[in-house]
Amino acid sequence: MSGTSYGDVRSSTVLDVLLPMPPSTGVTMQNPPGVAGDDWLIRASPRMARPDAAACPTHRRIAMRPQLVAGPAVPFLSTPYEEFGFGPLFTALDLVEHHGWSVERVRTELRGTRGPFRGRGAPVHPVHLAWTAHALERYVAARAREQSAAEKSGLPPTAAVKHPWTWRTRRTDAPGPRGARQYEHTVWGRMYASADGTVRDLWLPSLGRAKSSRPEAEIGAMAQVMAYGAPTPRRRARDEPPAEATNTTLPPALVRVFDVGCADGSVEPLLGVAPRFGEGPGEARKRFEGDAVPAFVAVATATGTHPGESCVDCKAIAGCTDLKRAPSLWGGRPPSVARKRRSVSAWDLRLYAECPAQYHLVRRLHLNDLSTENEGARRGRAVDSWLDARHGEQPVRGCRDRAAPDPATPGFGIGLDDASAREASAMLAEHRLLCPLNGLGADERVLVQHRVTAYVPELDVVVLAVPDLVYTHRGRWIWRETKTSARPLWEREPLLRTYPQLALGVLLFHARVLGDDPRRSWVELEHLREGHGESRLERVDPGRAEIVDEARGVIAGLAQPLLDDTTYEPRTGRHCHGCQARTWCRPGTAYVTDHPLPHGPNEPTHADNPKPSAPLLSRGGTPSDD
């Protein structure tokens, strides 16, 4: 065999039927600055085939090469709590599916756990343990229902397998055009097989409801490994795989993939192909070659950078010149115990200030009890969606001459009740005179929902901000945040403290992360209300030292406790009514029971409509032309 393109495996197995990938692009990959190691192994998971416009191309390309490491090496740093939401659930399922424990016995073990569950990994937050007990019960019940239905349809039962399936090519002596000598494809999830090997099932847990669809490239990658992969013992992160190709002498007759919602036990079938009978071996091959292979090739050969969330886990961060450095952005101090790199956003800071547990459970673990947003939050999203669509049009056009949408217009305010739709329409009518694009020159830059990213090296923290709009006006950069509210701005609390995203914008301008001169920049708040003439435009000058000092104080007061925290204790309050982890939080549930909202579930909470703000050192006025 020469070369190592995907699908190019020579063995006496059914793998021989797979066609090779399209001809090589001729790209020879080189390690980016700040990365050391060898790129001879490419490991691909179905997630890598998933389109992700926000991801950094260089990060994804490096992530597919597990033998590459950051240079200088980054030591392993533990976390105070488990940060993989499904980790404890998979440990619990192992006890049920491989060790014969009853669900109730595992739930009892979860209730008694203090620290790591079964002694594995990092300690688990008490609310995370409660979520795990809830998810375990629903997952096992969903599996039982599906197995009962499968039995009625004549399919054999499936049981959990201990070793995940992997599809791997033989290692070659010479590297191919992409520098690789071996390819390895994996799948993630809970895996099951019938005793006779004719049926293989993959169950993918989702934190909320079951997903009814996934990208075709991701499905194609799953189909390939499920049909042609072999059980493979788990290895440590950088251990080399065997040099031989995987060998599946008898592929399954049926491969099925299900998505299961851990919050409600819902199940959605995603795939059911027959690689040996029925549709024949062409189905898995066509899915892989037609959908997954182009996606994998694009990721494995991608170049360029896109700073953002990818920076948190990127091995190349030390050598990346496109990621803006912002040392001493707010004057924070490193935590007393070293932690692995984290991201911080204004939304993180606000959620943490409300409740540290909510930050850990919702922002880090993404737990979701399927509770609905209140009307105020849905109304705000409807306004944002309408503005984003209009502000993103080319050529640039202001909103002064646009009619506000009729509340009854199909597609406007989906999910809003009639009153909220009317309020949203009235707020958009108010926006017409405040629109920053009114009269803006055709040569100006307009960026809608543009991600601004900075790295604070002494804290090893990636700062993420997504202003509603950033645009240029006669040589100056302007950062616009738009907020909807049922209440007027209140003048007894500083504006930057009420809206920390404005404070973060000031600091990012001051650090020259966006624009070259903070003295020629503005941060604006467009505060929209329903009543005619009640909306306001507030401006903050990041070029004034006193404003920068105030912004530093606001962000430092919010960020330092977050960076130092190792317990994430619940802090109850009105925000508990809208917390997506409250179902499993005893203090939050008790608070909601004892403090019902005065006007029912649609009453806005602090998280949805922050309490009104106060005068800052620079306020009022409209943008000038200087």
Describe the overall structure:
The chain is of the alpha/beta class and 626 residues long. Helix content is 29%, strand content 16%. It contains 14 helices and 20 strands. It has helices at residues 57-63, 87-99, 103-111, 126-152, 216-228, 282-300, 346-354, 356-364, 375-391, 418-434, 495-498, 500-510, 545-564, 586-594, and strands at residues 35-37, 41-44, 68-70, 158-160, 165-168, 182-186, 190-194, 199-206, 230-231, 254-261, 267-273, 324-325, 342-345, 446-448, 452-456, 461-465, 469-473, 476-484, 521-528, 536-540. It has a 5-stranded mixed beta sheet, sandwiched between helices. A 5-stranded mixed beta sheet has the order 14-17-18-19-20, sandwiched between helices. Strands 2-6-5-9 form a 4-stranded mixed beta sheet, with helices on one face. A hairpin with a 7-residue loop joins strand 19 and strand 20. The longest helix is centred in the N-terminal third of the chain and has 27 residues, at 126-152. It starts with 34 loop residues before the first strand and ends in a 32-residue tail after the last helix. The model is unreliable at 1-27 and 601-626 (pLDDT under 50).
